[in-house]
Amino acid sequence: MKHTKFRFSALTIRLLLIFLTILCAVPFLVVFINSTHSSLDIVQQFNLLPDDSLEDNYNTMQSLVDIWRGFFNSIVITVPYTLLTGYFGAMIAYGFAKYRFRFKNVLYAIVLISMMIPSQLSIIGFYRLCLNLKMTNSYLPFIIPGIANATTVFFLRGMIEQSISDSMIEAPRIEGCSEFGIFNRIVLPCIMPGVATMCIFNFVASWNAYMGPLIILQKKELYTMPVMISMIKGLYVTNYGAMYLAVAISVIPIMIVFAIFSRYIIDGLTTGSEK
User: Fold this and answer.
1) pTM beyond 0.90
2) Which of 18, 39, 216, 224 is most buried per CB count within 10 Å?
């Protein structure tokens, strides 16, 4: 009886997970399906099947904005930012977790406080700083902050404290390995699943960033993907087919990155369980 009850519970959980998966996939399917419909169809009805207006929507989108230029601009910002947050975030987290130095707790408290400040409150000061440094119309203000991402440091510090013992660091140090060698060869591979997780979040956050590029970038040819998409919406008339197509194009890199890194996370966790 207990065995039957357990099987029933397991079946219920599986069905629930399937339902949640479908529920999460529906918005993406709606975006891709609506990108093939005309604006009139999208307004008048809920579409479940693709249509033949994809080419017209693409031509309309290209006539309104240079979407591929925005795509390239977003890549130029997002890829370096993601790499910086992953590597330097792990390095800073390692320093907070395993090193002892003066004002360590004070500095870490500053990191935590910075996480609690909404980015909208700092956007004016951020703009003034970029203006004084003559960094408007530049991608550097969106890439350089990746060196010290507070959320990444907070997440990876906890992971390092739990998964990296002091003996794992002291043994290679006694053998003459440099501090950078210890980090690159021992610490970083051990926490790579956590780094990959944060890379996913940071990639998505940077790719979808709208307010910062809109304010800092004043030249149209420098606009990123989200800003380009917002320009498709007209003051009186909006072509929803073209807008859905632009959104569909912007979602594809996020799905690719998530698929690559999620597989790496699963492999890392499986390797850890085998050990």
Assistant:
1) no
2) 224
